Amino acid sequence: MSKDNNRRQTQNSNEKNTQSRRTMLKAMAGIPVLGLFAYELMEKKSFDRSKGNHLIKELGLDDIQPPTRISTSGEVDLLRIGIIGFGNRAGQLANGLGFIHPVTMENWRKNERLNNWLEQESLNVAITGICDVFDLHAENGLATAKNELLAGGAKHSGLPVKRYRTYLEMLTDSSIDAVIIATPDHHHARITIDAIQAGKHVYLEKSLCHTEEELYEVYDVVRNSNRVFQLGHQITQNVVFQQAKEIIRKNILGKISIIETTSNRNTADGAWIRHLDANGNPKPGNLQSIDWKQWLGNSPEVPFTIDRFYNWTKFFDYDTGMLGQLFTHEYDAINQLLRIGIPKSAVASGGIYYWKDNREIPDVLHAVFEYPEKELTLMYSASLASSRSRGRVIMGHDASMELGGTITITADNNSTRYKQKIQDGTIETDAPMLTVSSGSGSIDAVTSATEKYYASRGLTSTFINGRRIDITHLHLKEWIDCIRHGGTPSVDIEKSFEEGVTVLMAHKSYLEKRRVEWDPVLRKIV
Amino acid sequence: MHHNRTTYKPIQLITLMLLRFLIGWHLLYEGISKFLIPNWTSAGFLKESQWIMSGVSHWIVSNPKVLIIVDILNTWGLIAIGLGLIIGLFTRVAAISGAILLLVYFMNNAPITGIEYSIPTEGNNLVVNRTLIEAIALFALAVFPTGSIFGLDALFYKAKLKKITKE
Fold first, then answer.
1. Where are the domains of chain B?
2. Cβ neighbours, 10 Å, residue A441
3. Fold of the domain spanning A79-235+475-489
4. Strand ranges (DSSP E) for chain B?
């Protein structure tokens, strides 16, 4: 009996064991599927990596590292800066220096921008002087310079901030070490010359000058001084731009014979109609609050109007229109990359086709610059009446590079160098071959369809996980670092001079409706 | 006997298992590829949103912090759902949340006549697209569960069963 019982029990437990083993096995049914998934994923990853790496390696781009920034080293003396001309741009420059207007501060607090700005590195500077012919602007400058909240957790120097009625008054004050000039363009060269001769370091907003005579004078004065001069083209500070330099240096594009630059704007503000506020009322300012005579400077005497004061860009007495305001940035970007220098000849044409106001500057403009020695042509095509997005494109025999907030490199269908790779499918020509986005700062071979899509639309730089750094801040920092430790800023007087000549050549061509040339011996435009 | 443990004919079981593995595979890889792409964000997709979800989606895009959270939830949600479906763990929860997630995608990007998107779509769709079909297929998997037959859920099921029989 008991034996029987025992046997039954053993049988039962055996059955149970088998059953639980079977349940266990069934429970694990998904594991082989997962294993297969992992295997396929590894296969794909290693394929993508070898495809991408292979290309990057072959192009010699595998050793490019995103540039690292040297932060201001420990103990430096406080630099005392005066700002001449405190309009909209000067406000941005003050932000770059680490200062903020109380109203801007409140606005930024609402949209989270403030925290990002507060992380900006302290440059250990004080804004101790403000000069503006317009009381309201001068007061904005004073409020900004006095605001105790500074970027980078810096403590306010506590130094007084003085308003100077004229820039010469500021220049004679020995307590100012350096000046930032952000006035309308017709003052640029004069103030720079006076400032350098007064022993101040100068950061000048573009453009360098308004006439040829001024150009040669400012060049000589700056060149023969030991003061640090920087022109306000901040694009070189963009991390992406440094990568573009490497790509050019490694000759990824092949022989470059044509470069196309553009400006594409289609708003009243973009066309320099800026005298009305958001409600359509004239902005503040009258002869009581504006020193009109000083504003005019050496330009012809004309009656004060709100239009002229805010929309000065429209008139040739004060600047050269799109050439001085927009093309300068384009030219600088290309000159920094390729060191093309002064062209042999320039032809420009255009007209006032859309903005039928009292303007003198064209709203549609083209300029073509020839560089026979470099064997290339630089084109500039600009419109204030269409914002159709046209990039800044450097075209080579093997590939072209579109340089904006991101870099997109596309192989040429008929490239000699990439012929084999195009044939075997390693390189596609209907999609970017390489992209560099400012987000990662690293170079990726484009492998997935989504990446291709966003890269081609330039959407890759909109959302950046890392810290967003203001490039104007970096450009100012470079200037300040050179003042403290020596060295030459990116946009020094040589490059500024080349740019000045190029702009004035196109301007002269437009005005005189003829092809102009640069005479390198006489050193003048003929 | 066995409470609500559905019994299937072998061919039914095989079909359901296949469907479960394939959808799990698809969602798992969608999640992993988002994880692998540096700085991946749903911003581009959400910006395109035009139908009934557009208000919420545009709000998400305009709030960087919320966007980061949504991106993380989306990526890891897809990975968790995909894994759950394949190994059969919390299968029903995975199927239902997967279905809801896919319906949200659908409502952001529905091929409704008169709404046009700039992101190119695969195939030709009229109101119904593959996202919608996959969502409904997941509902079907929730209604015809297989996790406690072939999947880790079986272990929990067995433990539960033991407890019930003891009582």
1. 10-166
2. 17
3. Rossmann fold (3.40.50)
4. none
Q: Which two three-digit tokens encode residue B143?
A: 């209604």
Of A29, A448, A462, the CB nearest to B43: A462
Interface test with B, best of A442, A459, A465, A468 (most B CBs within 10 A): A465
Residue A494: CA atoms inside 13 Å, Cβ hemisphere, count? Answer: 8
Return the domain boundaries, chain A. 79-235+475-489, 239-467+503-516
Question: What's the token pair of residue A388?
Answer: 């159709």
Closest CA to B30 of B122, B96, B102: B102
From the CA of B64, how many Å to the nearest CA of chain A?
9
What ipTM was reported for this prediction? 0.89
Query: Which tokens in the block code for residue B140?
Result: 């079907």
Look up tokens 């003396």; give the residue: A77
The nearest CA of chain A is from the CA of B38 a distance in Å of: 8
Q: How far is it, in rounded angstroms, from Cα A289 to Cα A134? A: 6
* SS3 assignment, position A434: strand
Structure tokens at A185: 């363009």
Tell me how far apart the alpha carbons of residues A291 and A85 are, in angstroms, rounded to a whole number: 12
User: What phi and psi, each to the nearest 5 degrees, are found at residue A390?
Assistant: -120, 135
Amino acid in position A395: M
| Helix segments in A147-288, DSSP class H | 167-172, 188-197, 212-223, 239-249
CA torsion B31→B37→B39→B44, rounded to 10°?
A: -70
CA atoms within 13 A on the CB side of A403: 32
A6 three-class SS: helix
**Per-residue exposure over B5-14, b if at least 16 CB sit within 10 Å of its own CB, e if not:** eeeeeeeebe
- Mean pLDDT computed over A409-431: 89
Q: Chain B: give the shortest CA distance to residue A24, in Å.
A: 7
Is A440 within 8 Å of B39 when comparing Cβ atoms?
yes
DSSP secondary structure, A478-516, as one string: HHHHHHHH----TT-HHHHHHHHHHHHHHHHHHHHTS-E
Written as six digits, the tokens of A173 are 């004050």
Structural contact between residues A427 and A371, judged by C-beta atoms closer than 8 angstroms: no
Query: What pLDDT digit, counting tens, does each position of A491-516 carry?
Result: 999 999 999 999 999 999 999 999 99
Contact A396, A337 (CB under 8 A): no
Cβ atoms < 10 Å from Cβ of A457: 15
Residues A5-60 pLDDT 10s: 667 666 777 777 777 788 888 889 899 999 999 999 999 888 877 766 677 777 77
User: What are the residues facing A368 on neighbouring strands?
Assistant: A347, A379
Superfamily of domain A239-467+503-516 in CATH is: Dihydrodipicolinate Reductase; domain 2 (3.30.360.10)
